[in-house]
């Protein structure tokens, strides 16, 4: 489980089915088997070497996320899994990316992103873009807009996004479960009890 609060911007050293990332700030106390969100994708540390972390990436993950398009030297957002005694600053983020969205517009601190499923986006709700917890400003058709505060622009890779870039999208976990509950064939009485 993650929060969408980025700890470090890492650098891709080699990109393939084994991802090598330069991460001097978090590598020190990261252990083999730990979970790290890389641009919002939960990956397991397979090896470690001083200030580098290595991850084995499945073919399906490369196809379903934007990780497959990363080139050597690319910057990525990194967050270690939430500790039980840590401060919870963003929202519940599983690291299971729902889809790769497409940046439609970048205007100073505003990002507009095209997605395939607007039913899981709510105005003033949470969404994760490349691992960063953000608040949805508006939704229209299959587009949603988020605003980026100066701190987010400085401490994540979102400030370098351009029109046409692919981004990892994870919808709000709670909204996803609620939609799943509503779409199951539960008796209406049970649903009313849950909602009211």
From TrEMBL:
Read off the Pfam families from this record. Lum_binding
TM helices/strands, residue ranges: none
- Which terms does the record give in the GO molecular function aspect? riboflavin synthase activity
Q: Name one GO biological process term.
A: riboflavin biosynthetic process
This protein's UniProt keywords? Repeat, Riboflavin biosynthesis, Transferase
Give EC number(s), comma-separated. 2.5.1.9
Role summary:
Catalyzes the dismutation of two molecules of 6,7-dimethyl-8-ribityllumazine, resulting in the formation of riboflavin and 5-amino-6-(D-ribitylamino)uracil.
The protein's name in its UniProt record: Riboflavin synthase
> Can you name the source organism?
Candidatus Termititenax dinenymphae
